[in-house]
Design goal:
This protein is of the alpha/beta class. The chain contains eight helices and seven strands; from the N terminus they run ααβαβαββαβαααββ.
Length: about 210
């Protein structure tokens, strides 16, 4: 696969479904639970510069800024429509957040410019080669010692999640996720100490928390 194989998959696969994205995550995916857990794992400190990679409508970005008001938080997404929704949310909340339009595998930032990168349910939107490219880009923009924290679909555990993954592995580009290939991809992208932990189940299948340090 080469760069010409890249394709953009919007939230829920189709742009016309974007308006139902927030309610679906809130009520069907236990969104608050896994995003609060991701924020706790990231352990962002005041003064640090943080990127929410594939920020979507900005829910995690806002939660992170509210949890650590002194952090410098940026949200990036490749969909102008969802970014407009994210900007509207931050305007209503009064939170100072920078919003950028861009692709995860071609980040518009200089080397070593962030202390941490977080990402929630975005990686499974990328084809396999773009996952690798995105992880390489994250490694590039992180400062030495910088951390990458991801929550996304992962390999099944137990009978129920095995059944779910069998049905849902064709969801967007989630076959890599359900096949357990995210951790090896992180390691192949320079994150030698990448780990996965704390799985939890959702209506769409198991999600795992991935952590990596540059």
């Amino acid at each position: 696969m080469n760069e010409t194989d890249s394709r953009y998959i919007p939230a829920l696969s189709f742009g016309w479904l974007t308006p139902v994205y927030d309610p679906l995550l809130k009520w069907g995916m236990r969104e608050n639970s896994f995003k609060q857990r991701l924020i706790a794992r990231a352990d962002v400190q005041p003064g640090q510069k943080v990127l929410d990679l594939g920020c979507g409508t900005g829910t995690l970005t806002l939660m992170l800024k509210q949890a650590v008001p002194g952090a410098d938080v940026t949200g990036l997404d490749g969909d102008a429509d969802v970014l407009a929704r994210a900007k509207a949310k931050s305007a209503r909340s009064g939170q100072a957040i920078k919003w950028d339009l861009g692709m995860a595998y071609d980040l518009p930032y200089p080397d070593a410019s962030f202390d941490a990168v977080v990402s929630s349910l975005m990686i499974h939107h990328l084809v396999a080669n773009d996952k690798l490219r995105a992880f390489g880009e994250v490694h590039r923009i992180l400062r030495p010692g910088g951390r990458f924290h991801v929550v996304d679909f992962g390999h099944p555990y137990g009978i129920l999640t095995r059944l779910q993954s069998t049905v849902l592995k064709s969801l967007e580009e989630a076959a890599d996720n359900f096949g357990g290939r995210i951790l090896p991809m992180l390691q192949a992208s320079g994150f030698a100490g990448a780990t996965e932990a704390d799985p939890m189940n959702t209506i769409f299948g198991p999600v795992w928390f991935y952590s990596a340090v540059k």
